[in-house]
Amino acid sequence: MAESLETLREEVLDRIARCATEPEIEDLRVEYLGRKGRLTLLLRGLKDLPPEERPQAGERLNQLRRLAEEKLAARLAQVKAREKERILREETVDITLPGSRWERGRMHPLTLVMDEIIDVFLGMGFEVARGPDIEDDYHNFEALNMPKDHPARDMQDTFFVSQDRLLRTHTSPVQIRVMESRRPPLQIIAPGAVYRHDDDATHSPMFHQVEGFMVDGHISFADLKGVLTHFIRRIFRPETKLRFRPSFFPFTEPSAEIDMQCVLCGGEGGKREGSACRVCKGSGWLEILGAGMIDPQVFKFVGYDPERVSGFAFGMGVERIAMLKFGIEDIRLFFQNDLRFLRQFV
Ligand code: DAH
Question: Bridge-partner residues for 260, per DSSP?
Answer without folding.
Answer: 242, 286
